[in-house]
Amino acid sequence: MSVKVLIPTPLQQFTANQATVEVDGATITELLDKLDTSFPGIKARLCDDEGKLRRFVNFYVNSEDIRFLDGANTSLNSGDEVSIVPAVAGG
Amino acid sequence: MTLATQTRSTAAAFSGLKCKECGAEYEAKAVHVCEFCFGPLEVAYDYAHLSKVVTRQTIEAGPKSIWRYRSFLPVATDNLIDVGTGFTPLLKANRLARRLGIKNLYIKNDAVNMPTLSFKDRVVSVALTRARELGFTTVSCASTGNLANSTAAIAAHAGLECCVFIPSDLEAGKVLGTLIYGPTVMAVHGNYDQVNRLCSEVANTHGWGFVNINLRPYYSEGSKTLGYEVIEQLGWQLPDHIVAPLASGSLFTKIYKGFQEFAKVGLVEEKAVRFSGAQADGCSPIAQAYREDRDFITPVKPNTIAKSIAIGNPADGVYALDIARKTNGNIESVNDQEIVEGIKLLAETEGIFTETAGGTTIAVLKKLAEAGKINPDETTVAYITGNGLKTQEAVQGYIGEPLTIEPKLESFERALERAQTLGRLEWQQVTV
Fold first, then answer.
1. Closest alpha carbon to A29 in A61, A63, A68
2. pLDDT tens by residue, B319-359
3. Assigned domain for A39 exists
4. In chain B, which among 301-320 make CB contacts under 8 A with chain A?
5. Does residue B347 share a domain with residue B292?
6. Same structural domain for residues B236 and B346?
7. CA distance B430 to B432
């Protein structure tokens, strides 16, 4: 159940400067926990104190915004690509 | 490229970047998001210093461009890119006002901004000046068209390499108006939000200056000049109400910031200004949140002729919502037909040919006026941000046709009579 995750620049300090990492996880929520196991501290940057995804970060599964899917409960399949992208861009 | 040959300006009053959400501070480099909370970074200024050194007179003595406000812009050197951007006309729109049943209406006309006929020249002039200061040699952007025009043109003038990204379905005039300057143009199969996401990823890996991504804190400050100019052109006064288009929401929030700053440093007397925003029904995530009383934005997939403001996932949407609410303004949306009518109304009453974003703004202005949401006596400024010659497809088929005649007096007289009869019929149809 390996998923490829694209890590944005501000978080690459957690991943030894790797721009992509491979992680397991059946949903986005699970993937966040697994990411934090491999790269301690990364989840706190992506989620607020209540564990909810921060409002200025976008998650995409195979290029689709998870808000058009199932949000944090969006299920993942082996080989999926998850992009984590800062929301503040463009315009 | 180094800063060694450039003169450091004594007027520079910006100190660094600050997260708008958590307040974390950063050096004034090419970064745009807070690494702790992903909030947007904004330029911080020393207002105490500015209030001492800037006066109405020092501004009035400056160039007739955005650079007369350079103390309030995030540039550190005197090596400015000044292509005559800004200081566009503020027109008293009496004929349009009468049609809408209001009295004190002004149009801020960035349809004639230089060099590429949209407000984007303001943000790009600032972004590319800063890009050079930071040592970038290639500049880029994610664009719905106007920004690509502007980035390509001003990069050409400044001698910077340029690669722009646009959705592949843009209007022909917007594409041609970029290609002519000779940049690399990537036409992406997808909507603006997809282009934007791709660019965020490219910005991660290539050392380019993306004006609206890693240079966004500097870029967005350029829009404040739309606030400053209106104050100065109204005789150093704030208006009562402004109406502006909403795409990412950045322009809206920066006009607000511009008004606040001039009040803060004593250049204008403080006054409450209402902020109203305009969106197209086919892409109205901010208007929907406003209507439903939400404080978060749900992204949408755009489907409207107003392509220049078709951003389904607006970065500054929550801030725009907040400003409209706290200033007692409104956020409205209009359909594509109303947008076309808005373009025609502005052209026929004021002689200004705007693009679809301007049509949206005028149509929303009309809707608000009809609903009694514009006080007839308040000084209202509608921001027209782009030029109609770039989006001709939008109005094709909705305007008249020329009367083709022979080079003979008789032929002319016959055609004129026919035109007048048709005009009368049209007039009767309207009144029935």
1. A61
2. 999 999 999 999 999 999 999 999 999 999 999 999 999 99
3. yes
4. 301, 311, 313-316, 318
5. yes
6. yes
7. 6
